[in-house]
Amino acid sequence: MTIFVVGVGNIFLGDDAFGVEVARRLMSERLPPQARVADFGIRSLHLAYELLDGGYDLTVLIDAVSRGNAPGTVYLIEPRFDEAAPAADAHTMNPDAVLAALRALGGVPGRVLLVGCEPASMEEGMGLSPQVAAAVDEAVELIHGLLARELAKGELDVSGDPSANRAVVS
Fold it and tell me: Exposure of 105 by Cβ count < 10 A (0-12 exposed, 13-18 middle, 19+ buried)?
């Protein structure tokens, strides 16, 4: 089993840097040898090519996700991707577009989960808001738990019980 943990987002748009910061933190920590962590920022086509070449069983995307809850809310989402999404351009980081580009290249995505955080602000500027900065630790802990469970059991609990993964599941 191989797991690819990917931080995405734009560091120049405030809380959009959430995924990049979580990936940066995870890269400095001890992870199972079956897991690889990378920061792809806004390089969606590069990510599509990596997914094409990597043959990962599970990809965990980390990103800012607006769902209407309080800023700093951490989510675990098993997304349903739009098969008709337009292909990504060189700087558009949208999971639908990345996977559409992957399919256009002849690839098939493995299982994909999204660890997201409700942003407070995605205005121009560097640095996370206090609420989102505080959520980084929770996301790192969540991902460590996901990796451990995935490797131990072969599947995750995405049943809808928020306590199962210490996040909001949808």
Answer: middle
Residue-range definition of the domain harbouring residue 155: 3-169
Query: For the whole model, what pTM was predicted?
Result: 0.82
Per-residue burial over 2-39, b = 16 or more CB atoms within 10 Å of its CB, e = otherwise: ebbbbbbbbbebbbbbbbbbbbebbeeeeeeeebebbb
Tens of pLDDT, residues 30-79: 999 999 999 988 887 788 888 888 788 999 999 999 999 999 999 999 87
Grouping H, G, I as helix, E, B as strand and the rest as coil, residue 68 is coil
Q: Structural domain tally of the chain?
A: 1
Q: What is the pLDDT of residue 31?
A: 93
Cβ–Cβ < 8 Å for 5, 37: yes
Pairing of strands 74-77, 58-64: unpaired
CATH number for the domain that contains residue 129 = 3.40.50.1450
